[in-house]
Structure formats: structure tokens, C-alpha cells
Amino acid sequence: MSSKISAEELKQEMLKKYPAKVARKREKQIIVNRHVGEFEGRPTAPPIAVNSRTIPGILSMRGCAYAGCKGVVLGPTRDIVHIVHGPIGCSYYAWLTRRNQTRPERETDPNYMTYCFSTDMQEQDIIYGGEKKLRKAIEEAIAIFHPKALDIFSTCPVGLIGDDVHAVAREMEAKYPDVNIFAFSCEGYKGVSQSAGHHIANNKVFTDVVGLGDMRKPGKFRMNLLGEYNIGGDSFELDRIFAKCGLTLQATFSGNSTYEEFASSHTVDLNLVMCHRSINYMADMMEKKYGIPWFKVNFIGAAATAKSLRHIAAYYDDPELTARVEAVIAEEMPAVLAAQARHRPRCEGKTAVMFLGGSRAHHYQDLFKELGMDTVSAGYEFAHRDDYEGRHVLPTIKVDADSRNIEELTVLPDPEQYRERLSAEDKAALKGKGILMNGYEGLMPEMAEGALIIDDLNHHEAEVLIDKLKPALFCAGIKEKYVIQKSGVPLKQLHNYDYSGPYAGFQGAVNFYQEIDRMVNATPFTLVKAPWQESPELNAAYAWVG
Amino acid sequence: MLLRHTSAETTVEREALTINPAKTCQPIGAMYAALGVHNCMPHSHGSQGCCSYHRSMLTRHYKEPVMAATSCFTEGASVFGGQANLLEALGNIFTIYNPDVVAVHTTCLSETIGDDLKQMTAKAIESGKVPEGKTVLLANTPSYAGSHVTGFSTMVKGMVDALAVSTEAHKLDVINIIPGYVEPSDMEEIKRLASAAGVKTILFPDTSNVLNGPMTGKFRMYPSGGVTVAELRATGDSRATLALGPAASSAAAKALDIKCHVPCEILELPIGLGATDRFIDSLRRLAGVSVPESINRERGQLLDVMTDMHQYTYGRKVALAGDPDHLVALVDFLVSMDMQPIHIVSGTPGKSAEQRLRPSLDKLGRPVNVKIPGDLFQLHQWIKQEPVDLIIGGTHCKYIARDEDIPLLRFGFPIIDRVGHQYFPTVGYKGGLRLLEKILGLLMDRQDRDAPEERFELVM
Question: Are residues B85 and B67 part of one domain?
């Protein structure tokens, strides 16, 4: 840790203001990073008590299951009509606010992303039930928009009054057999964070969409990218790189995606997992049912991008592909290195802290390393222990009541479509090349010892961080943005990229270097004091030389 | 096209499906109102997603810290009731964040399960979760009724219900002003006008110096602005209440009349010349003061630009989406400049808005499309049927504006892609002048852009 205060002192500083019960809980969620052992050649971290209930009144950064399901996973898909069943707010707030960019191929292709659909439930719907209104709303949506698929998102009151959204979906699908209609029970009170909504979304897309289509994009090396949401155009940059490498991206879950791509996504030979937290369920289920292997990738950071591309080439084990990937890396890197040379000297030695969803607090550390910046404290908003400590802890995670309420599907190999892609020997060979099949090493083993890991950071703890650590940059979201900036520290939004981007891939890395340089050297932040505040005493007021 | 599926023809009469709403839900309005109380922590009694969404949206609109807490309902709380969560939240908020006031509003979740806020708050006080001298405000704001405007109105009424008292035998020379659902800059402007007229006022809520605070290098959890608890108590001793914007302000004004016998006048928002005239006129009568020359001069300046630039406003067609109080005042202003507001929607339900629009619209002598409650999809269809020269509404209208190539004046809530509304008012004569300047700028820029080279004007 770069500042004078130790991580343990910092932790105690955070805890001391808390009532005893709160302190006891937070004590287990704020951990000084240590490498306490070893698992398959990697360091292991101490356990952290995460994915537990948010403390009422604490000012957490978290959102709800609906946000995870509609906002994160399904929202970026452009040609499904997403009807939010509930009072108006839930649909309103998730209307275009996440900056998932989308680019239909033709002017005539469907794109519903700019539309916000809601049943706008009123008091009589709460009292007498909302199913009738939902049915009517679906009929109206189909009459106006003629979609291939339509989905329904349940908000809090829907579950409480007992509307059976799944029955409505089945009934309406029987009436409109050309439209795939399915529903999500993603009420906001489910689980403890957005994470529950991711799981609910994964389950339903897996059972009701994946496997229904046969639109195979041509190519020898066909794969899906899971957990990439095209914030600020990240997917566009990755599409560019994959195309250049000769890789075929069948489906992205779910940035810049279409229904048909989801439906045909089971036809590939590899799943790449980007945001582990939000989509690992899908990767696991597709492996069990179709035999599609998966591994974790990271396209945030130029070195990480190159490494991930090399892993893909190693997986397919094709000399031509390997050569092409190497050629692409060689072609892309000079511009990246030139940008690093420009920006690194202006950023080097500065510190960052990062508190984001369930992956970015890890991924973006690579980009900061490329700028010579250390991440001195980090944490997730809604992650589980495996995101912090690595997937090897999965068997030891205790499932609590909140998580048990989220359905865990039992998935068996499909008698016709299951095909094993890798033998045990293949897997061992890949491991030898540093590829962790079905694996994720987690945030903590990769962070320096002594860094402070804080799960579900709240406002009080953020204030202590700013006060005691004085980082050069704070990375979080919109709610934290101006709180932190009022303190004189720039905040980079890494949920929505501050309306900029892309930051993924090679060109994204260049954008990011420039953006961070801009922020940590921003002139306005140096102008806080007026001249009379800098030197308030009146000295020799009349002693000018005339 | 961004809204490529919207066509001029109506294929189906919608009864159940809202597309591109022109309103949002009650709790966000309650949260905004609560931020206008000094040293107050707004609190959302529901699942944490509501609070997160409301804070995010208000933050996008103001580009300022928006602090608020939540009861963080889980599935268990939703079944067994939220009392334990509320008590725990209140204890934590007062211990960790030490506000003077916690302003609790409900959500669709806690309303659906029937949580009784009054009883729960009594329980919290009884069990020592609310320290001595601290205040808890309450507002029932189910998202399945009304809109953000209703939520604002209910929380403002909650301030009266909890705090206003009548202590003096005779009322004091103070006028209460309830500013309505307007921006911090507008609240500041209303105070400035009253002060220029020499009227002592209590303005509530007051988000100025809360949601347009300075950058000082030091974050303040509770900024310097906001109406204080003492002032809210004292509203019961004021001579009269002036409520601006019936939808947002009349509930509190009437409650104050019933509770403390403070008579009220309910006016439209002082946006534009005529509405500001009526505001100033009521203010001077209620307070017994004469209008100073400085205000006459401001009025004259606004009227000067209205007369001088009349050729650019005359006959121009406008489509509007917004809140009822905003729309009624804006339409009155537009019609007073001989503009033609021809398509009007508000998502906020209620029959009175259309009745209040009628006197202005009747002057147009032509049919006008009004749908309340209506949505932006409907507004867009009307624009395709009969195009307009200008759209007035929140940021979401920019998709229509781009597809149809029509200039957009951002007005109301939310404005999440521009700044200015936090700092520059649209109420009062000065605010009217700013609005008019913006309208003229948009119309004249368009004329410049579209003029053939030979008709490109140097002087306009």
C-alpha cells in the first residue's frame, strides 16, 4: 500500500463508526489481501464473506435482481420486445441508461432498444391482478412491432400479488406461435443484489432460447463471447479483432446481439467468458448440455487482449490460426505501445481504487498496470466468493437462504446435440499452456498483498478511503461520481464509461490511456482555491510599484 | 432511424401497453422533495433497487451527489413485512450519517404488502432508534398510482403533517411559498423575487444549494441549502401560503390551511410573462407590499424581447411532453407569443390538467392533440401526422427530435444530457427571458441552417 496508513488501520478506521452488529458483519467483508496458500501453482486468498444481505440504511452501491436481469443481461439484445410488468419506474430507469450500443445491419432490421415498454400497473391491477393487462399489452406489442421474440420482466409487486407471468407467456405463445414468449421472475427483492437477476436471466435464456435456432455463421473457428455487453462500443472493437484473426463470433451474450444469435449459440466449439459473475451459469449449462468447453478471457488491457487471443489460438491448435493471431498482435501493438509511451510517464506511480460490479474491478487492473498505476483497494458490488478467491472455492461455498431461492437448473447432456470437444488429455495439454478450462483465478490472488479488499462498499467507507488514501483516481458508478469529485478526486465511471469508450481490445486500450491521463492530470481539479483563499492575509495592500 | 418502428398510422388503440413513458414513479419525486430539507436523509422503504435507480436518475439530472438510504427488502421482508428492516435502517442512518431528519417514503413493494409507516415509526421511536430531537417525515408513495409529481406533492405534504404548528395567536408577516416541482435554480429565483419585493418568506422544499452546490474540494453530506426543521414548524404561523403548481403543491397548502389555519392561494407555476404577473400580483397582495421598480424593469425586458422578436415566434408549431404544472404554464407562455402548441402529452394521470390547458388552447382556434395520460410514442405519431417546428420536453425526446429533424428545447425532468437547469432558472421574468432566448436560438439556428444561400440573413 502506497500511503502511510496500513490496510489494517484503514479497515479499523472504517469499522469504528459502526454499531456493533454492523461492524461484526463488515469486518468479514473487508479483508486485507494476503496470499495464504497455494492451489495448482497459484496463490490463494483468505475467505471473504460476500454475496450476503445488504445492511439497511448503509448507503450501498447495489441494485436489484430486476436490474441484473433486464438491465444487464437481456437489455442489450435489440430484437426482443422487453415488456416490464409493473409500475412505470422500473422500465423507465432501465431505458437506454446502460449505454449498450447496438448496430442493426440494415435500416429495415428490427431494433427495439430505443423503446421502453411497460404495463404501467395501476392500483386496480395490484388489487385485482395484472395478468389481464399483461395479456393485452403483449397483444398490442405484437400488433405494432411484430417481434420474433417477446419477454416479460416481473417487478416487485408482480410476485407479491401472485401474477403468473409464465402462464401468461405460455398462453400468449399458444395464441401467437410465431413469437417466442417467455418470462423472468426477477422481482427486485429476490436475492441480495443484481446477481440474483443474472442467474434468473441465464436460466430462462438457456431453457427457452438457446438451441432453438440453426443460423450458423460461416467459419472454421466458431465461438461465443459470454458476458460482454457492448458498453461504449467494446463489442465493436472485439468484433473487429476477431474478424481480423479469422475467428467467427456466433453470438455475444449480449452486447450488440440478436435473438437468432442466442438461439443458434449452441452450435459453436468454444465459449469465452468475459464477465464471470453475470454469465458463468450459461457457460456451465452449455458445457453440460452441448459439450461446449469454456474458459475465462479478459479483453481489457492490450496485454490481456493479446494473452486471451493466444489462448483462443492454443485452444483450436491450428498453425494457420496461431500465425494469424500473432500477426494481428504484431500489427496492433505498435500503436498501443506508442500510446503507452505518451501517457505512461504522466500517470506512473499514481494510485487507483476500484469498486465495480462483478468483473471490472479485476479486469481494469491490467489497464492501470500498463499505465504504471497501482490499484490499492478494490472490491465488487455483487460478486460471490469465486470472483474474489477463484473458482476452486466453489465446493466450499455455503448456500444461504437468499441464494437458495434462486433456481439452480439440473442440466444433462442432450442425447442428440451433446458432443465432446476436448478429451482429458487435451485439457491437460491446455493446462500446460496456461489455459484454465472452466476456471477463474479470481481477484484476490492477482492483487498485491496488503491491498484492501472491500465487498459491497458503502458511502461511509468510500469517504474514509478518500480521506486516508487520497487516490489519484476513483473508479465506480454514477451514484458515486459527484460525491467523490466534490472531494477533489476524479471519478471514472466504469459501468457506463462516462459516455466514452470503447476500452476493450487494442484500440480500446489506447482510448483508456488517453482518458486516464486526461483525468489524473485534469486542470480544473487544480483550481479549487481562489487567490484570496490561498493567501487570506492582506499584506502590503498599497505597496505596489507604480 | 432510432425509432424506426413508429409510424404515423395507429395500427391498434392501446389500452394496456405504455411505450416510451412521459412520467416516472412516485418515489423519485418524494426523494427529490426530501433533498430540499436541510440536514435530511431521504429514505426509500422498499427493495434496494428502487433507491439505486432514483439516486442514479437524480444524479444524472443534477450532476450532483444525491444521498439516500434504503430498507433493502429481501424476499423474507417482503413476506413478513418491512418493520425490522426500517428499524435497523433508522438506527444505522442516525448512528453512521447523523442527519437531523430522515424522510421515509414507501414504494410499490412496501405498499403492496401493506406496511404501516406510522406504526413502524412509532415503534422505532419507542425502541430508541430515533435519537432525541430528530425528526422522521413520512410519505406514502406507491409507484402504481400517480407519478413522480404525485410523490413530490405527497412528501411536501408530509413536511406539513409532521412539523407545521400554529404557536402564535396572530399570524406573522411571513408568506409560505411552495415552489412546486421545479429546479434548484428556480427555487432560488423565487426567493430572490420575493426578497426584491421585500416579502419575508419560508420556501419549502428548497433544493437550492443542495443540488447545485459548489466545488470546494470538500464533500458535504448535507449541503448548506434546504428548508430547516425550525422553518417548517414556523410555516404554521405564517400569514398565508402561496402554492405554485397545483399538482405538486396544493396538497401541502391545503393541509396547512386545515392544520394551522394558514389560508392559501394556489397558482400556476410562474413560467412566462402572464403566470409570473399573477405570481407577483398575489405575492404583493398577500404580503401587503408594493412591487419595486426593479421587478417592473425585469418584466419590461421580457416583454421587450417578446415584442421585438415576434416574427420568429408567430405561428410556430410546438409539441410538448412533460408534467401537468409545467405544461399549463408553458402553453400559456407559448400562446402569449402567438406560437401554436398543437401536440401535448403528460404521463401524469388526472383530469384537471386538460381543463387547465383549455383556456390557452381555446385561443388557438384550431384542434389540438392532448393526451393525459399519454406517452412519447403517441406524441411521435402525432408529430409524424402533423410536423412541428419545435419539441419541448425532457432528454428522452431527443430520439424523436433526431429522427424527425426537429429542434428540441430541453425542459422539465429529466434532463440528463445537458447542464444549465441546475443553475439558470426558467421561472420569473428573468427565467422567461432565458426560455425565450433558448427558443429563439433553436428556431433561428434552424432558419440559418436551412436557408438557401441567397436568403441567408446577416441581421435577424
Answer: yes
Q: Is A146 a catalytic residue?
A: no
Looking at the structure, tell me whether residues B271 and B336 fall in a common domain.
Answer: no
pLDDT of A535: 82
**Cβ–Cβ under 8 Å, residues A222 and A252:** no
Q: Give the residue from chain A lying closest to B147, CA to CA.
A: A88
Q: Tell me if B335 sits within 8 A of B342, measured CB to CB.
A: no
CA–CA separation, A543 vs A545, rounded Å? 6
Reference B235, options B162, B161, B176; nearest CA is: B176
Mean pLDDT (whole number) for A229-256: 98
Distance from CA of B449 to the nearest CA of A (A): 26
Specify if B20 maps to a domain.
Answer: no
B16 occurs within a structural domain? no
Residues B214-229 have pLDDT tens digits of 999 999 999 999 999 9
For residue A545, what pLDDT is reported?
56
Give residue-wise pLDDT tens across range B50-82. 999 999 999 999 999 999 999 999 999 999 999
Q: How far apart are CA B153 and CA A205, in angstroms?
A: 41
The nearest CA of chain A is from the CA of B326 a distance in Å of: 20
- In chain A, the domains with their CATH numbers are 65-189 (3.40.50.1980)
State the DSSP code for B271.
B
B45 touching A, CB under 8 A? no
The whole-angstrom distance between B382's CA and the closest CA on chain A is 16
ipTM higher than threshold 0.95: yes
Number of C-beta neighbours around residue A37 at 10 A: 10
R_g (Cα) of chain A, nearest Å: 25
Q: Are residues B308 and B450 in the same domain?
A: yes
The domain tally of chain B equals 3
Residues B39, B84: one domain?
yes
Tell me which chain A residues have a C-beta less than 8 angstroms from the C-beta of B112: 126, 156-157, 160-161
Q: Which residues of chain A does B91 touch, with a Cβ-Cβ cutoff of 8 Å?
A: 19, 57
Q: Write out the residue range of the structural domain in which residue B407 sits.
A: 301-454
Longest dimension (CA), chain B: 79
Instruction: Considering only residues A419 and A401, tell me which one the structure prediction assigns the higher pLDDT.
Output: A419
B58 within some domain: yes
Tell me, yes or no, if B439 comes closer than 8 A to chain A by beta carbon.
no
Average pLDDT of every residue of chain A:
96
